Fold:
Amino acid sequence: MLQTWLHALPFLLGAGFLTWLVSVRLRNVTIVDTLWSLMFVIAAFSYAASTPPAGPRAQVVLVMVTLWGLRLALYLGRRTFGHEEDRRYQNIRRRNEPGFTWKSLYLVFGLQAVLAWIISLPLLGGVAGDSSPLGWLDAAGIALWAVGLYFEAVGDWQLARFKADPANVGKVMDRGLWR
Structure:
């Protein structure tokens, strides 16, 4: 099991490195936010590729993490495309000049890859777990995931609409799911 977990790390670091190359060209490391959720998809498929053929539970986990990861990556990518670097990263850039371009490889992209690798450990259990038939607990987990995905998607949509209204500049969203 440890070997399977370790198997994912080079893929995550590789994704971080390739995305870092894009960020250097853009001079904007905000792109790492879009990569974040995709790292869990990469980890899950890495686990699946390095374990025996997946049972129904593993297939469900792969579908769920892929839907979640793609939805979040598309949302964040669309939200940040064409905008200046996020203030968080501007502050990190200022604190780490000179040489932030190189430092961002490990301070931003490498760190995100390692954190995603550590946090993805439960996915290994879901993908490499037993191949017994799905039961009521699996159904409860799928329902909980669906509710969570719904709240995340609707909350993001509501926040985007709120922020798009010029009358809300400087205000805190306290309506809808944010209430």
The chain has seven helices and no strands. The helical segments are 2-26, 31-49, 56-80, 87-95, 100-119, 121-128, 136-164.
